[in-house]
Specification:
The chain is mainly α and about 325 residues long. It is built from 16 helices and four strands.
Amino acid sequence: MSKNKMETGLLYMGKYIFTFFLLSFLLLGCNDNDKIAEAIDKIDLSIQISRFDQEFAKAEPSDLPLLKKTYPYLFPAQYPDSVWAAKLKDTIQVELLKEVDDEFSNFEQEEADLQLLFKHIKYYFPRFGVPKIVTVTSDVDYENRIILTDNLLLIGLDNYLGPEHRFYGSMPNYISASMDKQYLVCDVASAFAKRVVPKANDRTFLAQVIYYGKELYLKDKLIPFLSEAQRIGYFQEELDWAHANEEPMWRYFIERELLYDTDNKLGLHFLDPAPFSKFGLELDNESPGRIGRYLGWQIVRAFMERNEVSLQQMLGLPAEEIFKKSNYKPKK
């Protein structure tokens, strides 16, 4: 056999072996995912949802004692019954409750998704107790649209009427864009993530980026039945932009040595909700806000692909360790 034929044969064999191992790895990964999905499906769990918003909308002043007994946490003791009686007849409240009922008269899809979310939580966090779920109106308090405690989950439905709803007309577009029912279950997953993801232990930009990356990776596990765009709160075109520009964005942070910077402005520019991220470049208006969270997400994903650690172990690891062991390098 000639040398060229031998080299060709070895090259072919090498490609075959690589393909074999790649397919084996992918099949093993699929089998693992199938086993997890099967185990989650078998979890015996039911959720309890109380539609306080509907009960209050139909109530008369004479119904207040029973409502207060059933939902004492919704009636602060310092307010007399006259306050709640007046609220029952308040024209703005009546309109708010009507709009909520029109949008959420059928809550079946949300209930199914919430049950699936809590099954995933129970699988990864077996000690977690499923809270009682109560839907309310919150006077469009979008910063507190979801309140989660050990035993109770409050969902402010008036924060999910759709981005174009007239109640949100005075809000910036980047805020009203998130006020859509497609993000309701994602927001509940985020509220849970904030309870189990340790706060960043230092003030560096990298620590903040990895913190949000942990949150988003956790959401990968808890709500895989929803899209990536929903998980991060983007429109699909915003997520597509982030994918397409991942490498130049990363190069921007590396070349300017921003990862270990402690300037609070970096959080304002790249992590906090905003109409766009602030690179100080022409691409700013094209970019979605919170782009640092997206990059943290990719770093944590890269780390989990390359390291044999559990989800819970990863959540407790320092940002520096995750970053170094991720070998994160976005594709050009």
